[in-house]
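lol forgot to send this yesterday, sorry. struct tokens for the thing we talked abt
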């Protein structure tokens, strides 16, 4: 069996229902898969450690997950010149449901596994 490497999953920091669904899905997925979750808000706030962490992603396998068409996760990665290996846009949600969380988790898991190879 091949060795897997941790995949960085960069998530938006929004409060749309889609963003809340993706955060719940990623929290659960982090218990099941070899991923490291990175949120964009600290880097946007200019926190030095977070800025350095965001810049360090340039050499990593990154899955970007956004919760709405605003695409803040991808925009932040672009700002720090990070090219994601995969981008997942969560379907539009009007509220947070178990079904929505499970569907988002499956899509994110698939992207992570594709990036792992």
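and heres what i got for the seq, position by position
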């Amino acid at each position: 069996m091949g060795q897997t490497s941790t995949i960085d999953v960069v998530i938006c920091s929004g409060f749309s229902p889609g963003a809340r669904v993706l955060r719940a899905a990623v929290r659960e997925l982090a218990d099941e898969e070899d991923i490291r979750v990175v949120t964009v808000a600290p880097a946007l706030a200019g926190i030095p450690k977070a800025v350095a962490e965001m810049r360090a992603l340039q050499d990593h396998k990154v899955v970007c997950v956004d919760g709405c068409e605003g695409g803040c996760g991808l925009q932040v990665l672009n700002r720090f010149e990070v090219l994601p290996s995969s981008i997942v846009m969560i379907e539009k949600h009007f509220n947070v449901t178990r079904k929505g969380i499970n569907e988002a988790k499956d899509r994110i898991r698939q992207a992570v596994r594709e990036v792992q190879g």
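The chain has a mean pLDDT of 92. anyway ping me if u want another try
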